[in-house]
């Protein structure tokens, strides 16, 4: 062991300083399993001071590092750096304070997303951002990647629900960003930090805003004989002035998979299913529901179901949430993208994806957040067939370019990470990227923090490794 | 010296040419746009116009010098609005000035403030380069969130030239209840009970000493029942404002009519209100968005307000009135801020402090 590594070892007790190959293996990749790298060592800090000490060690010896929570990043955002340090934050998993009166929770970065809502539930409160990784993904990772979920049109993303953060900068210094107020009187430094994909520092304490749980939900499932009709229905809902909490569409391939997996009772012959959910004060929701019924009736749905109780609602959502892992039944492997298009271009985007799918000879299932134009094409392939992964990646790239060409974005919620950095130039000019780089280099001249992510540059070769162990176990899914 | 650029190239040229520049929009917040000695003013109202707006997308893109009044009129034609409810619409405020000052109004209570609705920006950095961040769709996670960074940046990081916002449908019907309480403690107790309840309010203002202004919005057929529920929740009927009178009430407030003096914005939480109320005396003031935002008019020495805010651990921003420094209260400066500012403006062209002689 080198002198410098010895110095790091002295900062952490045995068991929280890992260097043996067997100990490092679980940290070699995240949910984007096509990439893999072997870190120099893994440290598992339990306090802000330990995180700062590890970062200072990296700065002193110019060792690049990656901070990681549960490793559910779909963009390879928490992929380690070959020969770099991996700072695992799962042990910093405490709820430090829950103030029901002020409606906020202060947590450590390794605290799990869903547990925030669980802790807030006795007070009638919840934490709004709901990425489908929420049973396992951590707040620190959600913060770094500005995670989304099914309710972003109305409630925004993670960034809209973070009030403050204590941050270790890449030089080891500590800053406090934000405050408990929703307002601010200077530049929104916290706004810059959230979603910076670990390049600007590591959050060690995060203040989250909690919302009162909606009083009533009204969940509608509508079946269509074409994807285009479902897309038009979304446009009609929006045009009617309603603002649903969620609007989701699944295509026939996704329906088939979900049905096989969880028997949600979906109409099997449907070419497309639309889920619309209203939420809020009971009398308002009841009135909105009457308007929605009329809009859906006119949209050409051939079958409409309204959840009559919480169980029926859960059943509708269960199929939707299971759709991703269920696709695994249709194909040995798949990759998922999360490009965004303007809502009015959804139909065009889906038709184009269908055309690309035929051209590449790879099936594509579509499950998406229709309310905010956030696509989730699942490209099905067989990793054991020579060249199929590369072909799937090419198809994915074409879909990203298509999203940008239609006026959208390469990522709605998964982040750029390792996976999409080559496509940043599709969306941003050289001057745009330079400005972001200058910000990054001002804080991290050695580019140590999450080196190799977000900005265009070399990426390690893709290799086929199959699904993430947690995914195989059905714990996480890729949306 | 004052310049009025009419193109992006002219803004870039001005930044490259002059040593110290200060952008000005509609001038509705003079404490933030009055030039210091040696600063060249860039009048941004020559760069106006809505560039993209499709009501079905809930997205509006406009040049930064576009006046709020123009934007709001266009949105209203389609039953939509800027949900963060920016002030000074009739006073000529622009989109760029609103973002740079980071200002929201009473209706931020329902869906959020200007930071929650900005989707994209284009700005000229301190070296005259044109930079874009964010996008034009309602959901986007690509690259650093430069749009949010620009909120409240006061022109110190760049000169905004274009902004994109998420917009929402305006409620089909609204009604406002003004409810008096026997004292501040009772009013705050009601405020906390409301914010923890599923009752959804478009505005929740506290008017000292002990009145709450509560605005409901939604479908007209549901509104009477919701009003009744709100009244029974509070245990009193209050004064009901509806239709034109209600619209007038809020339109009037959009000017932040708090009398003559220095108009100051303070960021806070409801927890700070009891101590502030003891300290502020007869200062005209109004707390917005369940105590997250305070606007007040100060007529004493700025140093006294500075000290008062510091003592409470709060920060303030002077919008109108002559002060040496627009930022009051606790020091929000930190190393991250300094480094990012230098990265975007290495020569200090946008410095908020008087240039050295």
From TrEMBL, chain A:
Record keywords: FAD, Flavoprotein, Oxidoreductase
Xref: InterPro entries: FAD-bd_oxidored_4_C, FAD-bd_PCMH, FAD-bd_PCMH-like_sf, FAD-bd_PCMH_sub1, FAD-bd_PCMH_sub2, FAD-linked_Oxase-like_C, FAD-linked_OxidoTrans_Type4, Oxid_FAD_bind_N
Keyword Flavoprotein found: yes
Cofactor: FAD
GO MF term set: oxidoreductase activity
EC code(s) of this entry: 1.-.-.-
SUPFAM superfamilies, alphabetized: FAD-binding/transporter-associated domain-like, FAD-linked oxidases, C-terminal domain
Domain of life: Bacteria
Domain (FAD-binding PCMH-type): residue spans on this chain: 35-213
Name of the featured protein: FAD-linked oxidoreductase
UniProtKB/TrEMBL annotation, chain B:
Lineage top rank: taxon: Bacteria
Domain FAD-binding PCMH-type: 1-170
Keywords: FAD, Flavoprotein, Oxidoreductase
E.C. number(s) listed in UniProt: 1.-.-.-
The protein's enzyme class: oxidoreductase
A GO molecular-function annotation: oxidoreductase activity
Protein name (Swiss-Prot/TrEMBL): FAD-linked oxidoreductase
Species of origin: Meiothermus hypogaeus
């Amino acid at each position: 062991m080198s002198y410098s590594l010895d110095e790091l070892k002295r900062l952490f007790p045995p068991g929280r300083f890992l260097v043996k190959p067997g100990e490092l293996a679980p940290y070699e990749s995240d949910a984007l399993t096509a990439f893999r790298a072997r870190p120099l060592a893994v440290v598992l800090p339990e306090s802000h001071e330990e995180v700062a000490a590890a970062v200072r060690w990296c700065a002193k010896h110019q060792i690049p590092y990656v901070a990681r929570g549960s490793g559910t990043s779909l963009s390879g955002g928490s992929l380690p750096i070959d020969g770099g340090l991996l700072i695992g934050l799962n042990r910093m998993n405490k709820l430090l304070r829950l103030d029901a009166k002020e409606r906020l929770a202060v947590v450590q970065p390794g605290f799990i997303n869903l547990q925030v809502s669980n802790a807030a539930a006795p007070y009638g409160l919840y934490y709004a951002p709901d990425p489908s990784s929420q049973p396992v993904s951590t707040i620190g990772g959600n913060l770094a990647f500005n995670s989304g979920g099914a309710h972003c049109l109305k409630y925004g993303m993670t960034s809209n629900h973070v009030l403050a953060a204590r941050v270790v900068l890449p030089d080891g210094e500590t800053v406090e960003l934000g405050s408990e107020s929703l307002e601010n009187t200077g530049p929104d430094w916290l706004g810059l930090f959230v979603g910076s994909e670990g390049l600007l520092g590591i959050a060690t304490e995060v203040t989250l805003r909690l919302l009162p749980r909606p009083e009533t939900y009204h969940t509608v499932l509508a079946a269509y004989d074409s994807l285009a009709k479902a897309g038009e229905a979304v446009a009609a809902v929006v045009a009617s002035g309603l603002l649903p909490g969620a609007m989701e569409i699944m295509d026939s391939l996704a329906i088939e998979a979900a049905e096989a997996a969880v028997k949600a009772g979906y109409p099997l012959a449907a070419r497309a299913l639309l889920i619309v959910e209203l939420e809020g004060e009971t009398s308002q929701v009841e009135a909105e529901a009457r308007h929605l019924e009329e809009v859906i009736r006119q949209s050409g749905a051939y079958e409409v179901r309204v959840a009559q109780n919480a169980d029926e609602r859960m059943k509708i959502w269960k199929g939707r949430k299971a759709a991703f892992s269920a696709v695994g039944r249709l194909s040995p492997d798949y990759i998922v993208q999360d490009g965004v298009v303007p809502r009015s271009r959804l139909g065009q985007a889906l038709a184009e994806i269908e055309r690309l799918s035929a051209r590449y000879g790879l099936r594509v299932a579509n499950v998406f957040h229709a309310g905010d134009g956030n696509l989730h094409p699942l490209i099905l392939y067989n990793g054991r067939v020579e060249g199929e992964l590369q072909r799937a990646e090419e198809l994915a790239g074409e879909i990203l370019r298509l999203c940008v060409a239609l006026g959208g974005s390469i990522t709605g919620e998964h982040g750029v990470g390792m996976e999409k950095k080559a496509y940043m130039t599709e969306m941003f000019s050289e001057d745009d990227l330079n400005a972001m780089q200058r910000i990054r280099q001002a804080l991290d001249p050695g580019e140590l923090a999450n080196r190799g992510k977000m900005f265009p540059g070399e990426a390690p070769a893709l290799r086929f490794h199959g699904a993430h162990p947690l995914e195989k176990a059905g714990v996480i899914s890729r949306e | 010296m004052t310049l009025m650029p009419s193109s992006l190239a002219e803004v870039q040229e001005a930044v490259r040419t002059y040593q110290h520049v200060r952008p000005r929009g509609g001038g509705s917040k003079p404490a933030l746009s009055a030039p210091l000695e040696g600063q060249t003013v860039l009048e941004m109202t020559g760069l106006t116009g809505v560039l993209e707006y499709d009501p079905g997308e809930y997205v509006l893109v406009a040049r930064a010098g576009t006046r709020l009044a123009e934007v709001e009129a266009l949105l209203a034609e389609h039953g939509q609005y800027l949900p963060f409810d920016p002030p000074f619409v009739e006073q000529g405020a622009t989109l760029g000035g609103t973002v740079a000052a980071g200002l929201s109004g009473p209706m931020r209570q329902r869906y959020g403030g200007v930071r929650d609705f900005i989707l994209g920006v284009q700005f000229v950095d301190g070296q005259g380069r044109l930079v874009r961040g964010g996008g034009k769709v309602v959901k986007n996670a690509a690259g650093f969130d430069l749009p949010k960074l620009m909120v409240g940046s006061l022109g110190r990081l760049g000169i905004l030239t274009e902004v994109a916002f998420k917009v929402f449908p305006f409620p089909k019907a609204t009604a406002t209840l003004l409810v008096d309480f026997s004292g501040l403690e009772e009013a705050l107790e009601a405020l906390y009970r409301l914010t923890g309840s599923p009752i959804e309010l478009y505005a929740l203002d506290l008017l000292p000493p002990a009145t709450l202004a509560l605005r409901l919005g939604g479908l007209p057929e549901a509104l009477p029942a919701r009003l009744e529920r709100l009244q029974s929740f509070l245990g009193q009927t209050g004064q009901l404002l509806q239709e034109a009178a209600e619209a007038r009430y809020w339109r009037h407030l959009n000017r932040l009519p708090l009398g003559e003096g220095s108009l100051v914005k303070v960021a806070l939480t409801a927890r700070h209100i009891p101590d502030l109320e003891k300290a502020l005396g007869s200062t005209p003031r109004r707390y917005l968005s369940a105590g997250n935002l305070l606007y007040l008019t100060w007529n004493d020495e700025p140093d006294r307000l500075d000290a008062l805010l510091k003592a409470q651990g709060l920060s303030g921003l002077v919008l109108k009135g002559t002060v040496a420094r627009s930022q009051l209260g606790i020091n929000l400066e930190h190393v991250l801020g300094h480094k990012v500012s230098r990265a975007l403006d290495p020569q200090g062209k946008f410095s908020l402090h008087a240039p050295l002689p």
